[in-house]
Specification:
38% helix, 214 residues, 5 strands, 14% strand, alpha+beta, globular, homodimer, NADH Oxidase
């Protein structure tokens, strides 16, 4: 406990949001309230970023035609990914990996162009722009959860084809298609664990001291 | 409002954590409680990850000698970055960019080796491992804030030199040196804005509809 510590109920709320956030693929078609959407984007925009470069752009997809085209791109990559998985191809094809056509709001999140001008914190680690953009998305994800909305991060797409579809400038790069919307239920565990695709391993396997441990 | 929505006080707590989180460089030397540290690491470990690959490893630095060596690596990169910044070299050198020697806990966060085995969601976007790892760090950052602890993400280092220092396997890659600890005060605004290095731009410049906007 210290003077900057939040009240107990506030602390628990934040830990609850972290624990109950899920990567959602099943949505109800209900509309997302405009004010809520603005709160979520504001939460994203409050993320920290390397050298304060704020390397995130949010493209809201309100065109039904564009939504269908994006869905087609993802469907193409789903098939390609399945093939690349070899012996797990059939198993992968049974998974629901996106809710693009069902969700209330569809957002594309992209890194902007002209990122090479930002050197602070990126000279040796250029991928810090991806990291900052992901922090913004995590803020949005947690805020969505407390608003009772599900969010799914889809990364099954060819970024060049998506750039063309959305007239993105050279040097920009989409890293997320976000399905956002109301849900019937939040998964009790990560969906890939419920589907027995992969399993969460215990924290202690991920924490080392003073060097890598085998 | 919907049935999955958190209570109002809970929602406000999460938005408060998001708004008051800061990238800290000034620390008090006080010890971080072990139980709190475990809660923070657990929060990180609850992040979603592409294909459930959980691409994060946390190396806790408890050796004073290692901490000093890490500080030296960062100091070397600080000078290199300043040179690369050209006309802003002198201005950059006046900024405090890390609190490695002062903070109560020092953590290195790294992507693991053998990531190439993970194809799901990464065939066309291999950087999704960085994104997942960043989501974990954002969880930790928000959890630290509610515990009243500051956290600074330092990315001024040569990842190969750090890998050697920490005996990291080939293919792994550190993306963060995290300074964690008690602080006198949280900055009212991002430190780089207070120092007039860069400025936060309004959200509306970051939100487009159905395509990129100039």
């Amino acid at each position: 406990m210290n003077k900057h510590c939040f009240e107990k109920a506030e602390r628990l709320a934040v830990y609850r949001a972290i624990a109950e956030r899920r990567d959602m693929r099943h949505f109800l078609p209900d509309v997302v309230d405009e004010e809520v959407l603005t709160r979520l984007l504001s939460a994203a925009h409050q993320a920290g970023s390397v050298g304060l470069m704020q390397p995130w752009r949010f493209i809201r997809i309100t065109s039904t035609k564009l939504r269908q085209q994006i869905h087609q791109l993802v469907e193409q990559e789903r098939v390609q990914t399945a093939k690349a998985l070899g012996e797990r191809e059939d198993e992968f094809m049974t998974l629901k990996v996106e809710g693009i056509l069902e969700c209330g709001e569809l957002l594309v999140v992209a890194l902007p162009d002209e990122r090479e001008a930002h050197i602070f914190g990126r000279r040796t680690l250029p991928e810090m722009d991806v990291a900052s953009c992901a922090c913004a998305i995590q803020n949005l994800w947690l805020a969505a959860r407390v608003e009772g909305l599900g969010l799914g991060w889809v990364s099954l797409f060819d970024p060049e084809a998506l750039a063309q579809l959305l007239q993105m400038p050279e040097g920009s790069r989409a890293i997320a298609i976000l399905c956002l919307g109301h849900v019937e239920e939040f998964y009790k565990k990560p969906m890939l664990e419920l589907e027995k695709w992969a399993f969460v391993r215990p924290l202690k396997e991920f924490v080392f001291e003073n060097g890598w441990e085998k």
